[in-house]
Each structure stands twice: as structure tokens, then as C-alpha cells.
Design brief:
This protein is α/β, with parallel strands linked by helices. It has one domain: Alpha-Beta Barrel (TIM Barrel). Helices cover 39% and strands 17% of the residues. The protein has 10 helices and 11 strands. It has a 7-stranded parallel β-sheet with strand order 3-4-5-8-9-10-11, with helices on one face. A two-stranded antiparallel ribbon has the order 1-2. Strands 6-7 form a two-stranded antiparallel ribbon. β3, α1 and β4 form a beta-alpha-beta unit. α1 crosses α2. The two termini are 35 Å apart.
Length: 282
């Protein structure tokens, strides 16, 4: 039986003009293995989504490529009509021609089709935050970002985000669009986006680390903090991300209500400053 959890203990962050919980939910793992197909436990997947909202999560991140299309449909099935204050963000820019295959398509025509499909599946008139899932090396980056600007002008999306970008690409995107967030890989063992995070801090953008708990158990400082606090390494690294920067919004994913409750325990964990610094040094 899952313990009572509450994301509100982590506080809030403003993304664009959207105030949301600082600990969100990534909705990739509610699909089948490898983000392919239907979940093995459909009712369990729906329960994860409903429990997250019940426990104070007000930011859910999904994508049309998760399933594909499965995650978005489950979000709508579980939560529509959406409660006030809940932000459902999604992404477009990947094709899924087969299991284990992720092929970028950042063409304006594809992004428009993808966005309109997400609107239908999520049962929304406007997507609060729509993110370019990745740069497409076959398409000029400015054209992909420009397509999102056109969708924004058409009223189909409220805010624009980018994902899997370099510092230079973020700068280019911001010269074209009012970008409000970045979603890049970032965790205790992968700090390759430190520069992008610093840019988000300077410019007041949200930074959404994906794979936030990966390799948590391999870090000795994380293990020592977990022992002191009587918790697990996953909770510690989520607490570290929350302490690392006020612009970070972790979005850990799960297919289990019990695991969701464990993740949300990080909301109320408080690391010592020297622990935060030691983990940050790697």
C-alpha cells in the first residue's frame, strides 16, 4: 500500500506564466516497455496519473512519441476534464517507425501535424507548453522553432519549450521564439548540460531534467546522505536536483503508484549544504 505523498512540499516554479509544483511527473513509463505500445497494466497506469494529481503534482510531461500516442491518450483518459492548475506539457519532433526506433522529424509540416494530433488526444484547445523534442539534423533548427512560433500565433500552443539542445541551439531558439523551458538529460552521472542549466538560471527559464534518477545508487555521497536521512538514493538525487537550482523542475517517471509515492518523498527531504555541494561536484 502506497504511503501518503505530497508534491506541494517542494514548492512551486513559474514556467512562462504557469505556476506548477516543482516536482512533476514524466509520463513515458506509463506506456509499454521501451515507450512502445500499451502498458501491461492499463488500470495501474491510470492510477499513477490520478494519484499524482491527488498528491499535489500539477505538471505532467508527455510526448506524442511515447507509445506512440499511447501516453497522451492515457493522460486524457485518466484526468480529463483537467482540474484547475494542472499543466499537461507535451512534445513533438520524433517519429516511431518501430520498437526501439526514434527518428527525428523537425519539419514544419510534421510538427504541425504532431501538434494537432496531440491536441486531439489530450482533448485540449490549447497546449500549455509544447516542446520541440529534439533538433533534426536534416532540418534547419530555425525552421523547426519557427514552426512552433506559427502554432503559437494560431493559438494552438501557449508556451514554447525546447529539448535535447546545446547552449548554442538554446540561444538560437531564443532569438526566434519566447522559449520558456529546456528539457535535457541531467543527473548525478551526466552533467553535460551544466552550461544549458546556467543559461536557464540567467534567463529565468525552467530546466526539466530527464532521466533524473539514473545511476543514483552508484554515487557514494548519495548513498551516505540516504543512510543519514533513512531513505533511498532516488529520493536523495531528486532532493539534490531541487536544491541544486530553483529553476530545476524534475520530472521522474514511473509505472507504479508505490514508486510514485517514493519519488514524491523527495519533496520534503532537506539535504545539508555540504551534501548538495559534494553531490554537485560529482
Amino acid at each position: 500500500m502506497a504511503k501518503r505523498a505530497d508534491a506541494s512540499a517542494a514548492g512551486t516554479i513559474v514556467i512562462g506564466d504557469l505556476e506548477v509544483s516543482r516536482l512533476g511527473l514524466g509520463a513515458m513509463r506509463i506506456t509499454g516497455e521501451g515507450a512502445w505500445g500499451e502498458p501491461p497494466d492499463r488500470e495501474g497506469a491510470l492510477a499513477v496519473l490520478r494519484s499524482a494529481v491527488e498528491w499535489g503534482v500539477t505538471f505532467i510531461d508527455t510526448a506524442d512519441s511515447y507509445g506512440p500516442e499511447v501516453s497522451e491518450a492515457l493522460v486524457a483518459e485518466a484526468l480529463h476534464p483537467y482540474p484547475d492548475g494542472l499543466v499537461v506539457a507535451t512534445k513533438g519532433g520524433y517519429l516511431r517507425p518501430g520498437q526501439g526506433r526514434w527518428e527525428p522529424d523537425g519539419s514544419p509540416a510534421h510538427l504541425r501535424r504532431a501538434c494537432e494530433g496531440s491536441l486531439r488526444r489530450l482533448r485540449l484547445e490549447q497546449i500549455p507548453l509544447y516542446q520541440l523534442h529534439c533538433p533534426d539534423p536534416k532540418v534547419p533548427f530555425a525552421e523547426s522553432v519557427g514552426a512552433l512560433v506559427e502554432l503559437q500565433r494560431d493559438g494552438k500552443i501557449r508556451h514554447i519549450g525546447v529539448s535535447n539542445v546545446s547552449e548554442a541551439q538554446l540561444s538560437e531558439a531564443r532569438s526566434i521564439a519566447a522559449v520558456v523551458s529546456v528539457q535535457n538529460r541531467f543527473n548525478v552521472s551526466d552533467r553535460g548540460s551544466e552550461g544549458v542549466l546556467e543559461a536557464c538560471e540567467r534567463e529565468g527559464l525552467g530546466f526539466l531534467p530527464w532521466a533524473p534518477i539514473q545511476d543514483a545508487a552508484r554515487n557514494d555521497t548519495v548513498a551516505a546522505a540516504a543512510e543519514r536521512l533513512g531513505t533511498g538514493p532516488h529520493q536523495v538525487v531528486l532532493a539534490w536536483l531541487l536544491a541544486r537550482s530553483p529553476r530545476i523542475l524534475p520530472i521522474p517517471g514511473t509505472s507504479s503508484v508505490d514508486h510514485l509515492a517514493s519519488n514524491l518523498e523527495a519533496s520534503s527531504l532537506r539535504l545539508e549544504p555540504d551534501e548538495v555541494e559534494a553531490i554537485s561536484r560529482g
